Amino acid sequence: MDIVLGLQWGDEGKGKFIDLISENYDIAARFNGGANAGHSIKRNDRRITLKMIPSGIFMEGVQNIIGTGTVLDPVSFKKEILNLQVFDEAIQPAKNLIISKKAHFVLPTHKLLDVYMEENPAYTTIGTTKNGIAQAYSNKILRQNVRIGDMYFPDFKERVEHILVRDYQFLADGGMKLPDFEALCEEFFDAVEFLKQFNCTETELFLNKALMEGKTILAEGSQAAMLDIDHGTYPYVTSSSTTASGACSGLGVSPKKIGEIFGIAKAYCTRVGNGEFPTELFDELGDELRIKGNEFGSNTGRPRRIGWLDLPALRYAVMINGVTQLVLTKADVLSGLKSVAVCTHYELEGGAIETAAAVLPENAQPVLKWLDGWNADFSSIKESSELPKELTDFLSFLETELGVPVGYLSIGPGREEILKMK
Known about the structure:
By secondary structure, the protein is of the alpha/beta class. It has twelve helices and 20 strands. Strand 19 and strand 20 form a beta hairpin. Helix 2 packs across helix 7 and helix 4 packs parallel to helix 6. The chain starts with a strand and ends with a strand.
């Protein structure tokens, strides 16, 4: 089993890369997160954003899995499936999409609780997508939630309504204006009925049997390493495990089965929501890169914060994930700059920090190294040998600093605009 994951704060271009290489695998499996993810894919000059569905859905013959480590909102899932079928009528997701019975539901009140806590000064505000993800995961840990397999039991509706009534009472007591309860329930249970047309099973058994038969699996992570609930910039993180180890727990596959670990990073950094971002740009250049790179959330449309590449954070992400190949994206966005900067380390009074373990001391100062910029018409480049020398020097610098080869380089938004380097 190979793994693809982001190494920064998300939005690195995982969906496009997975869409490119998934044709080489028998199975594409999503191992974490929920509808808070947004993998944007461009096909035939049209763009679509996948939230829950694995990016291998477009490949004929590839079986797609929504794994146990995910949380699924049936209402959002139904909309995504219908949107996908409008986008490409040839796709038949009911035939090549399998959902884990052990994945947890995102309930309607989970979204309301997200909004309530984000807007209530009594709680820490981190800038979530308000999709109810944290609420679903927290109730999972509290053992107060329902799982996908529960929808087949006769008391499922009663169990869900019990939770919803409890949440409604809590929110009403907190002064929140609430939508109509009956309408909320009807939409949810209608979406659950829609969900039942899909194959829901013990996906860990399916995946391990496939491995024993010699089939190949590509594990797909959402968000990115620096948003990991344990190893990220807490509390400004997501609610699931986004690292390579999370692929094992989220899919029920042994670490012994792991092969390549593709780590995706931009040639600069972006971040959505709150949290530390020491290399952030607040000037006109940051605004220019945001527009040029279309740096707006695939899921929410929120403008992303822009900054120079952070090597201490990237070293950390490479280390904890055991990355075997780096996939660098958005090199084309930096084209035309006379010089580009990279943060090589952070300075403190007591020394330097070269590998940033997620959260930096407040007095840590980023030290930037300036490298020659590049200028190229990337639309005409088809081979890595055609890249400008300044860019190949930049890539060699990253390989030396990170100790990982750059296996792929993205030079444009299309799935075909990725060069294989090694």
